Amino acid sequence: MLSLLQQELIKAMKVKDKPTIIGLRNIIGKLKLKKIEKGDDLSNDECLQILNSSAKQLKESIIQYEKGNRNDLAKIEDFELSLIEKFLPKQLTKKEIQVVVQKNIKAINANSMQDMGRVMGIVMKELLGAADGKIVKKIVQEELN
Questions:
Q1: Is 55 helix (H, G, I), strand (E, B) or coil?
Q2: Distance between CA 21 and CA 114 in Å, rounded?
């Protein structure tokens, strides 16, 4: 993942696309920081988790900037979010998430809200990067009720 981002950075540098260069450097910086903290190369799943976390933070920043009437800053964050989303898996629809949730509920024989933690753990691991945790939580709650 890191090498793919670095290749994209080189392409952006060749065409002198400054916003893309800045955005990719931010993303690469976050990945390199985690790599240094870990002391080893990051797995693809770890990279996806970092990108998901960054995307979530950017979405929250965009909302805050828009509330504060800072559309100029919101546009910058939105652009960086669009860069990150290119490297994330396609987001699943609610129907697709529901199918995965139902399959896992049957697999572990969950039948009450007390099993929510187990179901969420399995589903989120399976859907890594392909679904928002808030949506998954809501669907799991609906299915267990």
A1: helix
A2: 47
Taking only the tens place, the pLDDT of each residue in 1-48 is 888 889 999 999 999 999 899 989 999 999 999 999 988 888 888 888
Q: In 10 A of CB 30, how many CB atoms?
A: 17
Question: 65 is written with which tokens?
Answer: 């900037």
CATH 3.60.20.30 fits 94-144, yes or no: no
Q: What is the dihedral of CA 9, 85, 78, 50, to 10 degrees?
A: -80
In CATH terms, the fold of domain 2-85 is Hypothetical Protein Yqey; Chain: A; domain1 (1.10.1510)
Question: Hey, what are 15's tokens?
Answer: 């065409």
What residues does each domain of the chain span? 2-85, 94-144
Q: Could you tell me if 106 and 26 are in contact, meaning their C-beta atoms sit under 8 angstroms apart?
A: no
**Residues 5, 31 contacting (CB under 8 angstroms):** yes
